[in-house]
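[Meeting: bench + compute handoff]

Bench side (C.D.) handed over the final construct sequence. Compute side (W.E.) agreed to return the predicted structure before the next meeting so the bench team could plan truncations. Sequence as handed over:
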Amino acid sequence: MKTKPYLIHLPDEAATLDFAGRFYRTLPPGCLVFLRGTLGAGKTTFVRGCLRAAGYQGKVKSPTFTLVEEYALQDRAIYHFDLYRLSLPEELEWMGMRDYLRPDALCFIEWPERGEGVLPDADVEIDLAIEGSSRYLSFLPISSVGRKIQENLKSPVNFHSRDEPIKYTRDKNMKL
């Protein structure tokens, strides 16, 4: 049985960054996250929220032209890929993709469909959609790791499966 995606409404950038921080805190080492959405949907903003939660304070830019940005943190390496400009999935082999998919690393991959057939299955797929100045986030756990992440997110976010997206409101009293 296919898992139903979990939907959440993110009214502004602050809510996106906040949710991304909470999401980051549930991620085990070796996790693979696919990020989908149109240009400008907030994929890099989501990664920035994760990196801020990890303690990274530097500039976070989209790796559109470099394909990958590496963030070496104290407890793990985080790799942010943007495969938008990839011509062939095989180019991932040429750039040594398997070397990035280490058990101690966390990988975020934008435009994963460009690497189809070469990339392994994700643990979690996140799809961001624009509606006015807000975003809708669809969270789909793929693996057992993804389902554990989902369980860990349910409490702090009141995040559950339904046909209508739920509105995400930042709880200013909650410890992150």
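W.E. noted at the follow-up: DSSP finds five helices and eight strands in the chain. C.D. will use this when planning the next construct.
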